[in-house]
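Here is this case:
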Amino acid sequence: MGAYIFRRLLLIIPTLFGIMVMNFALVQFVPGGPIEQIIAQIEGGGDVFGGFSGAGGSPASELETQGAGGDSQYAGARGLPPEFIEKLEKEFGFDKPPLERFIGMMWNYMRLDFGESYFRSISVMDLVIEKMPVSISLGLWSTLIAYIVSIPLGIRKAVKDGSAFDTWTSGAIIVAYAIPGFLFAILLLVLFAGGSYWQIFPLRGLVSDNWESLSWPSRIADYFWHITLPVLASTISAFATLTLLTKNSFLDEIKKHYVMTARAKGLSERAVLYGHVFRNAMLIVIAGFPTVFIGVFFSGSLIIETIFSLDGLGRLGFEAAVARDYPVIFGTLFVFGLMGLLVGILSDLMYVFVDPRIDFEKREG
């Protein structure tokens, strides 16, 4: 197993490098880079997500004290001093060819230096850490609730296959799966957050404004009070896949010969189900937990975060993409890509932990 893990770790290097090359090359052909964003913000009087709205010392604020004149290669830069454009290019590193910029970026990433956001005056890692509590809350609790509900429900549906219970629960699951998460989130707001009916849960935020002054029991209660509706909205569609996967896995195992042998020996149905079938049937479900959690955590539901006014990684990624904040885009891509590849190895280890008979080295041979 050690040799297999070592080979998988070595494979991370070319895989991650390929991910970064493809995305970096793709970005070169996308119109509207960060300099164009700043020019549009200056001439339009707006701001790029609050980043350059009169921030002292920024290139945008410095421009306001300069005279107009000169030409520029950037569309919409009429009347802007060429020396200012050159200063922007140098500050952002666009005075260098793409290959040199890519090599420098990867060298910095290898030293865990992910740079600073173009528009927020904060390092990429500090920005990710700042947004992480929201994404961890949504990802962790949504995944745990989905597993806690779906596994027992899937087992029950397998045992009661074809019964009235199986039929009506399947209908309920399909309906829940068909409801878009954002629509369910709006419904929750209307019903329970003061929309038109009850004011039970708060409308926005992860915690209350006075959270720091609360006692620890009150802090915990306040935290769960705030995340109840967002977690429900992000979990509703996760039940279907996991429940049906659990049910089908159990049905496949129940029909095998070793189950009939165990029953012939006089074992109770409970002993057969949880002593023999459970480990084999839950192999895919349990071993896939790290991948499922990381997927939910990284993806970050932009719509859910927006509806409930939560500032997480979903909104961070969207705003960075719109503003062409390349350090945030590529820094988070590198970190999350690396973690995703490591979690893939962890998933393989979970397979071996759940079922020691699995040997990836023999399968590769």
